Amino acid sequence: MRQLLTSFALFSVAAPAQAMPFFATASWYGPGFHGNRTANGEVYNQWADTVAHKTLPFGTRVKVTNPANGLSLIVRVNDRGPYWGHREFDLSKGAAAKLGILRQGVADLKFEILADDQ
Which CATH number fits domain 2-113: 3.40.190.10, 2.20.130.10, 3.30.70.20, 2.40.40.10? Predict the structure, then answer.
């Protein structure tokens, strides 16, 4: 069992060529972090189309769709988190606004990890 978990953990860190779409809980962050360094070293821009995730490699592109309104966009992983509740992704404020979840703050969204050539 330990070997299986280790293998899974290694797989989850490597960006898959293409993954099946899945649903996950996401929130957003921005104002208190704008201008600070992200975990990958770049300056955080709360209006950029970026997202934080605990294990996806930096630079991974993810298509995010809000099933409640059909809005979608592609974001890039540039930070680590979220570290609050049972959330799997932390969108930038700008990405959250484009997806229509700024006011509610947290939503179940559809995620699709994109291959490098997509």
Answer: 2.40.40.10
